[in-house]
């Protein structure tokens, strides 16, 4: 695939189910669901940090959305899973089997009544 105008998605509308970027507690978050999850964590007195660590992968890096301090666990919030994100998460998990990790999608967030 090309870059810029040569890319096959140039000028095509992007469709995301959850692309509301904003601030929560003076932290820029990339989606409304991330903000709602942070509010859920606060409401339940769960200590968290946003995008605390970045991990080196083979050809790129990966930064999970949340780190839950007391649980020593990373959480990724996904409303839309682009294929690149899928492979990035898969590589992260394969290379870090001892790290506690949760991928939360719409169903998980609905069950917790986050959304």
Entry summary:
The chain has 115 residues and is of the alpha+beta class.
List keywords for this structure.
two-stranded antiparallel ribbon, 27% helix, 8 strands, 4-stranded mixed beta sheet, 23% strand
Q: Output the structural class.
A: alpha+beta
Give the overall average pLDDT.
87
SSE arrangement, N to C: EEHEEEEEHEH
Q: What Rg is obtained from the alpha carbons, in whole angstroms?
A: 15 Å
Low-confidence stretches: 1-18
Note the overall shape. globular
End-to-end distance, in Å?
36 Å
Q: Describe the largest sheet.
A: 4 strands, mixed
Q: What percent of residues adopt helix (DSSP H or I)? A: 25-40%
Number of strands: 8
How much β-strand is present in the residues?
15-25%
Q: How many alpha or pi helices?
A: 3
Strand line-up across the major sheet: 3-6-7-8
């Amino acid at each position: 695939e090309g870059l810029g105008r040569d890319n096959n998605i140039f000028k095509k509308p992007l469709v995301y189910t959850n692309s509301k970027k904003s601030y929560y507690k003076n932290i820029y978050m990339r989606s409304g669901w991330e903000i709602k999850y942070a509010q859920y964590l606060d409401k339940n007195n769960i200590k968290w940090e946003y995008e605390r660590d970045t991990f080196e992968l083979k050809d790129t890096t990966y930064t999970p959305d949340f780190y839950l301090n007391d649980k020593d666990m990373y959480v990724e919030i996904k409303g839309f899973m682009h294929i690149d994100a899928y492979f990035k998460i898969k590589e992260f998990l394969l290379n870090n089997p001892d790290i506690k990790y949760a991928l939360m999608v719409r169903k998980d967030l609905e069950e917790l009544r986050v959304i």
